[in-house]
Design goal:
By secondary structure, the protein is mainly α. It has helices at 5-11, 19-45, 47-52, 55-82, 93-122, 147-162, 166-186. It has one domain (4-186). The chain contains seven helices and no strands. It is found in: Endoplasmic reticulum membrane.
Length: 187
């Protein structure tokens, strides 16, 4: 049995009708949908590779677009979180430093994933026909599957704790759900 009293209390701090909150949810959901649709379209049509003159140039351009969209998503997340009330019972040093530690672990997973995969491995190069010589099994892939997704989720979780933000926690759940759906779709 799940005690929903804590969740109900937490949600009492979140205005899900706030425009900034809605924009943050939409940007969170949009990003993995966008890159999966575009990558599959490229794989079937090679249209981006033709437009940009090569698969590598097309992959780099898509990667830059994804990075910009991720910056927009993070901005929307932060603004939505800042516009909602803090949970005063969490606005303490221990919560802040716990969030900082969780964000640091998430950052470690994201950066080490990027370093292990490289730019084209990170940004869907396989859909452009840019294949790695072999599957990456070194850290962080030997610790968990999809470390970039879960590292990113941990960063948002940590950021939410650092700001004692119930809205941030709810948005982090949206990030986790979006990535779970993306993993199912990509698999």
């Amino acid at each position: 049995q799940v005690d929903v009293a804590a969740m109900v209390q937490l949600l009492g701090y979140v205005d899900v009708t706030d425009t900034g909150f809605i924009v943050a949810v939409l940007s969170i959901a949009f990003n993995p949908l966008f890159w999966n649709v575009v990558a599959r379209w490229e794989h079937k049509t090679r249209a981006l590779s033709q437009v940009f003159g090569s698969p590598r140039a097309a992959c780099y351009c898509l990667g830059v677009v994804i990075l910009v969209l991720n910056g927009v998503r993070s901005h929307c997340f932060t603004e939505a979180m800042k516009s909602q009330p803090k949970l005063e019972g969490w606005d303490y040093h221990w919560t802040y430093y716990s969030g900082l530690a969780i964000s640091a672990v998430g950052t470690l997973f994201v950066i080490s994933s990027f370093l292990a995969l490289g730019f084209t491995g990170t940004f869907l190069g396989d859909y452009f026909g840019i294949l790695m010589e072999e599957k990456v099994t070194s850290f962080p892939f030997n610790v968990l599957d999809n470390p970039m997704y879960w590292g990113s989720t941990a960063i948002y979780l940590g950021w939410s704790l650092m700001h004692a933000s119930p809205a941030g926690l709810l948005l982090t759940a949206v990030v986790a759900i979006s990535y779970t759906i993306a993993v199912l779709y990509e698999g």
